[in-house]
Amino acid sequence: MKSQMKLSILAVAASLMLPTTVNASDNVSPRIIGGMDANPASWRFFAQLIPSSTDEPFCGGSYIGNGFVLTAAHCVANRSSATLDVKLGGYKFNSKDGTRFDIKRIITHPSYNSTTVKHDVAVIELNTIPQGFPAVDLGQHSLAQYARAGDLLTVAGLGVTAQHGGRPDVLQEVSVPLVSAETCHEAGGSYAQDYIGVSAFCAGLKEGGKDSCAYDSGGPIVVNQGGLVTQLGIVSWGEGCALPGKYGVYADVPHHYDWINGVVTSPNTPFTFD
């Protein structure tokens, strides 16, 4: 799952065969490949980030209640809230479905690093509190409380459905296994960064074929335990889309929960871009 910026980087990297690097933002792209049409009833908390002047989403997000939306920092860092909207209840691409909301403020994680893409977490406060939209449950304390390597997690988005492909008509979802930090580090390059396994995690298949992709950035990856859906991660980055030996990287929600909760419960949280 990846933003337009990431898609452009991916295209250049592919054409020039750039070597891998520890600077994650140099050659990565967030992405839904190998998935299926999602059931809207299962993703009522899904959010689209869209320019105020169009209906075409450039990133995803999740509604976390009380007028706040969770997304990736790289989707919104240094963007003006006046130029963006959030759409809830919309499951079609470039459509008038759903409800648009103006943005009051954008708060990026104070330790977000645009070069390494560490702490790729941001919270958006809407101008009004949506009615009739359920909030997703957020994982707390530790990822290990909810899943271990090999367990299936499900990610959704409206990103491209092939590495150089087009956008889907409707919201897509795909299930991918959680990957251990050790296995992810073995992928080399940007995957060897020491924050993976601490503030971010990997998910995907060693053989490739299923993944998030460009324009999926910021969207939720969740676990379903007996009907309770809990968001564990935020689509952040990856090298290519659904490639063998490469994985999707997700900002770890339980790791960042205290900061997220602090933003939601404190009206004067700093690090705001108006």
TrEMBL record:
Keywords: Disulfide bond, Hydrolase, Protease, Secreted, Signal. The lineage of its organism: Bacteria, Pseudomonadati, Pseudomonadota, Gammaproteobacteria, Vibrionales. PANTHER family: SRCR DOMAIN-CONTAINING PROTEIN (PTHR24264:SF65), TRYPSIN-RELATED (PTHR24264). It comes from Vibrio nigripulchritudo. It holds the Pfam family Trypsin. GO terms for molecular function: serine-type endopeptidase activity. Its main location: secreted. The keyword Isomerase does not apply. It is found in: Secreted. GO terms for cellular component: extracellular space. Residues 32-265 form the Peptidase S1 domain. GO terms for biological process: proteolysis. Residues 1-24 form the signal peptide. This is Putative Trypsin-like serine protease. InterPro entries: Peptidase_S1_PA, Peptidase_S1_PA_chymotrypsin, Peptidase_S1A, Serine_Proteases_S1, Trypsin_dom, TRYPSIN_HIS. It comes from the Bacteria.
